Amino acid sequence: MLAEAVEHLIKNIVDFPDDVSVKSHENNRGELLRVRVNPEDIGRVIGRGGRTANAIRTVVQALADHKVRVDIMDVR
């Protein structure tokens, strides 16, 4: 559920929504959501000073009932 929510959120703020993918991985530190976006959208997703990325992480933590990390990377 979290991966779909993050994907929907990010697809609405990027210029290339078809390049967005979110994969969920479980490890000993909790859940990890790996977000991949087009290189031209990475600045838009991270935001000035990381504000947008922090807002996305805050929304994810509010939706989750466990520890979740969100990693944002570009597709190369």
TrEMBL record:
Keyword annotations from UniProtKB, A to Z: Cytoplasm, RNA-binding
Coiled-coil zones: none
Gene Ontology terms for molecular function: RNA binding
Keyword set includes Glycoprotein: no
Gene3D superfamilies hit by this protein: 3.30.300.20
GO cellular component: cytoplasm
Subcellular location: Cytoplasm
Family: Belongs to the KhpA RNA-binding protein family.
Biological role stated in the UniProt entry: A probable RNA-binding protein.
Name of the protein in its database record: RNA-binding protein KhpA
Gene: khpA
